[in-house]
Design goal:
Length: 161
């Protein structure tokens, strides 16, 4: 595979996830945005909504997985790709394991809850399908910058995640 167009496509899609992260920030949420992409098209997009919903499971990744499953009328999401601006937490990796997604693309590593490789290494766990491709660090700096805007407000941040 020629890597260049492949990377350019992932960066273009990550920019859309970043737009969602910015929305989260403006709504007082921890800024993580997520997408589900199928056949090159965004079929679901959302961001963290824990504060607005009072739902501890309302992470952007979970919300887009639910939307995509509902749209496709199937809990299995083979051929679907999850884009998220931050490394998924253990809960979201649990959802990734359940869905049989074919690709996970994320931006910034997450120091406290990142469960792909930072605090737990689920990327290498036998529960995860061998068929999933994982691409960390796509638009990493931009994704980190959005999160840092939230970290500038430590009193709020400590309550968010
Ligand atoms: Zn999560």
């Amino acid at each position: 595979m020629n890597d260049k167009p492949h990377l350019a496509k992932m960066r273009r899609l990550m920019r859309e996830a970043l737009i969602e992260a910015e929305k989260a920030l403006s709504e007082g949420e921890f800024p993580v945005g997520a997408l589900i992409v199928k056949d090159g098209n965004i079929i679901a997009r959302d961001h963290n909504r824990k504060e607005q919903t009072g739902d501890p499971t309302a992470h952007g990744e979970i919300l887009v997985i639910r939307k995509a499953a509902s749209l496709l009328k199937d809990w299995r999401l083979p051929g679907c790709e999850l884009y998220t601006t931050a490394e998924p937490c253990p809960m979201c990796m649990g959802a990734v394991i359940q869905t049989r997604l074919s690709k996970l693309v994320y931006g910034a590593a997450e120091k406290r809850f990142g469960a792909v490789e930072t605090t737990a290494q689920l990327a290498h766990h036998p529960m995860l399908s061998n068929h999933i491709e994982i691409y960390p660090g796509i638009l990493e700096l931009e994704c980190e910058a959005v999160m840092r805007q939230c970290f500038c407000r430590p009193a709020q941040e400590s309550q968010r995640r």
